[in-house]
């Protein structure tokens, strides 16, 4: 079941996220894709550091997990809370980006319509 969720998340990341970035930044696609890679690397590093370097305050806690690699106990509650907070912030950030994109979009649609009209007029003249 976990592999199914991981696969769904990965497919959303690889497909839909990149398509949304391409739609929202049509003139700066390279920069938007670089931004995705920068964010991915930064938060992967943060997750790694949190999982290994946040010590357990109470070793008997449910959230203190012993890692087999180093034998140390690590506090997973901090990592779980970070994932939940980032998920909520991601949804809120997407909703804000969507509203900004909708505000800018009517002007772009007029420009596109004018370009298409000019293209069609040139086609019929020939």
What can you tell me about this protein's structure?
The protein is mainly alpha-helical and 126 residues long. Helices cover 78% and strands 5% of the residues. The chain is built from three helices and two strands, in the order ααββα. The chain has helices spanning 2-24, 29-53, 76-125; strands at 64-66, 73-75. Strands 1-2 form a two-stranded antiparallel ribbon. The longest helix is centred in the last third of the chain and has 50 residues, at 76-125.
Strand content: under 5%
How widely separated are the two ends? 60 Å
Main beta-sheet strand count, sense and barrel state: 2 strands, antiparallel
Are there runs of 5+ residues with pLDDT below 50, and where?
A: none
Side-by-side strand order of the widest sheet: 1-2
Residue share in helices? over 70%
Number of helices, where a helix is a run of at least 4 consecutive DSSP H or I residues: 3
The H/E string reads: HHEEH
Radius of gyration based on Cα positions: 23 Å
What gross morphology would you assign?
Answer: elongated
Average of per-residue pLDDT values: 80
Number of strands: 2
Labels describing this entry:
mainly alpha; about 80% helix; about 130 residues; two-stranded antiparallel ribbon
The gist of it:
The protein is mainly alpha-helical and 126 residues long. The chain has helices spanning 2-24, 29-53, 76-125, and strands at 64-66, 73-75.
Summarize the helices and strands and which ones pair or pack:
Elements: H1 2-24, H2 29-53, E1 64-66, E2 73-75, H3 76-125
Antiparallel strand pairs: 1-2
């Amino acid at each position: 079941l976990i592999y199914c969720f991981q696969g769904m998340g990965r497919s959303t990341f690889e497909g839909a996220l990149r398509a949304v970035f391409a739609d929202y930044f049509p003139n700066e696609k390279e920069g938007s894709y670089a931004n995705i890679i920068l964010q991915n690397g930064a938060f992967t590093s943060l997750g790694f550091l949190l999982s290994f370097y946040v010590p357990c305050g109470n070793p008997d806690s449910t959230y203190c997990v012993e890692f087999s690699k180093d034998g140390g106990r690590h506090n997973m509650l901090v990592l779980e809370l970070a994932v939940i907070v980032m998920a909520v912030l991601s949804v809120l950030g997407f909703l804000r980006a969507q509203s900004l994109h909708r505000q800018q979009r009517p002007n772009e649609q007029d420009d596109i319509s004018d370009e298409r009209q000019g293209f069609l007029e040139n086609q019929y003249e020939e």
